[in-house]
Amino acid sequence: MQFEYISFISATNDKVWAYFEKAQLFSLFQVAPLQQFSFQEGKGFSLGTNDTPVLKAEFKLIKKYKVIHLSLNYSGIEGDAMIVKIIFYPLGEMSSLSIIIDDLKDDDSRLDVARNHWPGAISQLKTIIETGESLPWPQ
């Protein structure tokens, strides 16, 4: 099963990419504190606290201005890591960002995250990149 979410962003591809290289993006668009961040293949970031871990991510592939592959392990969700591919498309003064999740089965416990988290996440990413600020999360 594959999920693909696409957003057109009013920013050049190099500006969009620059946000992904910084810890600030990941601390703004997630609902848990950013514990660590290293934008390198084989490294990654984690969200949550020592008492309440939420997410551990590893950058599996980074091709500058083109693609990022992330391996995501969500606390409390059974199964293998979720592989998320983020593809960057330059469109002149704009860009397109595609998020692809294609390693899920019908009975996969990670389906809820793929269906319900990522549409909001790509919307939040677009807002942060275009305005420099994140939207408030619902209470």
Automatic annotation (TrEMBL):
SUPFAM superfamilies associated with the record: Bet v1-like
Q: Which domain of life is it from?
A: Bacteria
Which InterPro entries does UniProt cross-reference here?
START-like_dom_sf (IPR023393)
Protein name, as recorded: Activator of Hsp90 ATPase 1 family protein
**Species of provenance:** Lentisphaera araneosa HTCC2155
